[in-house]
Amino acid sequence: MIRCAKCDNDTRTTTLVTAMGDVMVAGTIATDPQPISAQVCSACGYIELYAPQPFEQPEKSATQAATIEELEAMPAPGTLVA
């Protein structure tokens, strides 16, 4: 059980829901929207909102990905290139 940050009592976990459905965190291009969860203190009413953290790393685009040959051809940090 997660404890309240203000009064150290028990909290309950719930999702935020409106008449239109779950409240979602907008996703990026690589991820879909995710539902927000709330920790609600049963004693003082304090609420903390949490957005899920994606475990998947977005794929690198072809322009971002460097090949081993390109990395080996780069000068070492701190060297002067004439």
Write structural notes for this entry:
Strand 2 and strand 3 (21-22) form a beta hairpin. This protein has one helix spanning 68-73; strands at 11-15, 17-18, 21-22, 24-25, 34-35, 37-41, 47-50. By secondary structure, it is mainly beta. It is built from one helix and seven strands. The protein has a domain at 1-53. The strands form three sheets. It has a three-stranded antiparallel beta sheet, with no helix packed on it. Strands 2-3 form a two-stranded antiparallel ribbon. The radius of gyration is 23 Å and the shape is elongated. The model has no long low-confidence stretch (mean pLDDT 79).
Which characteristics define this entry?
single chain; 82 residues; mainly beta; three-stranded antiparallel beta sheet; two-stranded antiparallel ribbon; 7% helix; elongated
